[in-house]
Every structure is written in structure tokens, then in C-alpha cells.
Amino acid sequence: MAGPFCSWSGIEPMRVDVAIVGGGIAGASAAYFLAKHGSVALIEREQHFSYHSSGRTAAQFTVGIGAPTMRRMAQASRAFLEAPPEGFAEQPILTPRGCLTVGRSEQAATLHRLEEHLASVGAQARRLSRDEALALFPALRAERIDAGVYEPDAMDIDVDVLLQGYLRGARAAGAHLFTRADVQTIMRADGRWRLSWNGGEIEAEVLVNAAGGWTDAVAATAGLAPLGVVPHRRTAFTFALQTEFDARDWPHVGTVDYDWYVKPEPGCLMGSLADAVPVAPFDAYPEDIDVAQAIENIERDTRLRVGRPLSQWAGLRSFVRDRNPVAGMRREAPGFFWLAGQGGCGILTSPAMGQAIAALVAGKPLPDPIKQLGVAEADLSPERESLDAGD
Q1: Counting Cβ atoms within 10 Å, is residue 198 exposed (0-12), middle (13-18) or buried (19+)?
Q2: What are the CA-CA distances from residue 308 to residues 256, 314, 334 (Å)?
Q3: Domains assigned to the chain
Q4: Neighbour count for residue 264 (Cβ, 10 Å)
Q5: Rounded CA separation 100/128 (Å)
Q6: Is the pLDDT at 56 greater than 90, yes or no?
Q7: Calpha distance 177→34 (Å, rounded)
């Protein structure tokens, strides 16, 4: 069996049942679930897996998500994340954190919609007064908020534990894991897909396109029409704790109009503008103006003094037109499956999305935990009407 980071130099192409392009959390989860049913190759162009979006996440599990299918896929993932299979991880993936969303009186309707979204998938939601919100997050400026909604079952996600569990499980099931493999050509011949890169070539009956912000570029390499996946940049940074506050038990906190959030991290706080700026796919870097605006917004609504950030970075969040995830195949390209559009929720939806794509590749129904939350194959399909630009 191939090792964790392999190269292939055989005269004939390696043959597998499924080739997955993209080694972020979506591709890793797909490899984990698909490797139980056939031979799999996971192909990542960077030097290590989860380099782009998955490695730069706020790592929060929440089901307070506006897009309905995304919200249901997050809730369908909860059981796996809370109690993964034996041997998947040596430590918990989730730890309690809670999520507080605050707003002003004129934003009451938006806060109510958040309550409805949480309730729609059976999650807990508590409406809070100003004083109750201040008790949870005492750094808030009382004059800047009037109410809040608290999701007590929101959690922190240990992304590396989750990712390594997927990769270790895929490898144990016989999957071949490639890094530094920048796919240059994709061709369809004799009912199979042939992918090649400098130093490697693979043939597969099924190709899963899990390339995140580069999803449409991979499709173009295969000669296929784009899905309309648009990467969006989000900037984040860390800053020092203040001696007058004990942040250890603070929840993840943000405004209902998404103009900042703050999250406790070991020894510091994380802050963000909660921005989503459409960009071309690239190795994202933070823009000084976004960091400055986030600091201004945080200091406007809280008593935190950010000062000079300790570190800063940016990542890509990729969306399709209706902001819901995609898992499935178009009739025009047999054996080419899309796994895309997780929009910053790829970590927390990865168990359900991985199980969904594995079922669809095998021609089986979606798993019961997904169907029980009201998600049908049509809701994930890349051929759904809500993705039509002419809709």
C-alpha cells in the first residue's frame, strides 16, 4: 500500500475506482468514506493537505446558518463529530464554546430569523436580554446592543484532529494520498478519467472535484462547463488578552449583521471582519484595510483594545449561486462528481457531505440522518434550478 504522501512513476497509469482532486477537508472526508467501498486516490497540489480554506478556518461548529441545505447538512454532521467511530481520533473533535449573536432593537426581526433557523433543525436557541448578553460577554458596550440569541450547543472544532482522522482512516482502508501533485491534464477515454501531473498519472472510473476555490478551474481542465463556484476572501487575526477580562469561558461572539466576530483562542483572542470579498482563486493574504476595519468595528461595539495584531491571515470561502453545498453529477459528464460550494462550512459539514458523495458515487440513497433532516438528492444536485444563472 502506498504511503501518506506518494508519487507514482510506473510506466502504466495507476488505476483506481475514484480519484479525488483537492485535499482540503471536503476531499479528505470523501476519501475516508469512499475508501471503504473501493480503491481511492486523493490528489492535492500543495505540499500538505488542508493548506487553503480548511487550514484557515475559525473552527466553529454552529447550525445557525442561513442557507437551508447547508444548515441541515451541518446538523446531520453533529453525531459524527460528537462521537466519531472507534479509533478515528484519540481526543475529542468538539469542545463546548457556545455562540452569541448580538444586535440592536431595529434588528429584532433578523435575530428572530436566527432563532427560527436554529429551531428548524432541532438546535437549542435562547433569546437574551442586553443584561444576559453582557453576562456571557462582559466586554460588550451596553449602549451598542439591545438583545442577543445564544446557541449553547455551538462548539469549537479541533480541525487537525478531524483532518488527521479522515486521512488516517482513508490510508488504513487502502487509499493512495498524493501531495505536490498539480493536475495538468484531465481526459475522458474508454469510460474512464485520466489525470496527469508532473511525475504521476492515474486512471479512474469516477472523478470527484473537491478543489474548493479552484473547482471551476479543474472542470475547465476536464473540458467541462463551470458550475459557478466563486471564492470569497475572509481575513482574520489574533490579538492579546486584556488583564481585566477572563475570556476562558466566553462564547464565540458576533453581530447579527456580520460586521465582526471575536472568538477565544489559547492565550489570545481571534477577531475578524466576517467579510466575504469575491476574488479569483489564489493563495489568499490579509488586506490591511480589512484588518483595520475589523479592529474599528470591534472597538466600537466592545471595550476590547485590539492594538497591533499578534498574527493575521486570510482564507477562501467558496460559494455557488444559492449558497448551498453541491454534491452530485451532471448528466453531460458521466463519472464526474462535484463536491463544492461549502462556503466556509466545509469543516462542520464534512461528515455529512462525505457520506453523501460516497452514497451518490455508489448509486445508493442518501444516508438516513441526512434524509431525516429533509435533504434530498435534488437539494445537493449540480443541476438544481437555483444554480441556473437565468433563474
Answers
A1: exposed
A2: 26, 17, 52
A3: 14-55+159-228+322-384 (3.50.50.60), 99-152+230-319 (3.30.9.10)
A4: 18
A5: 9
A6: no
A7: 13
For CA atoms 167, 170, 171, 172, give the dihedral sign.
positive
pTM of the model: 0.93
8 Å CB contact between 178 and 44: yes
CA-to-CA distance for 284 and 370, rounded, in angstroms? 33
Over residues 113-129, the pLDDT tens digits come to 999 999 999 999 999 99
**Which pLDDT belongs to residue 51?**
61
> Which of these, 379, 366, 381, lies nearest to 70 by C-alpha position?
379
Who's near 140: CB < 8 A, 6+ residues apart? Answer: 102, 133, 134, 253, 301, 302, 303
Which three cell numbers, joined as nine digits, stand for 298? Answer: 470591534
pLDDT single digits (tens) 138-175? 999 999 999 999 999 999 999 999 999 999 999 999 99
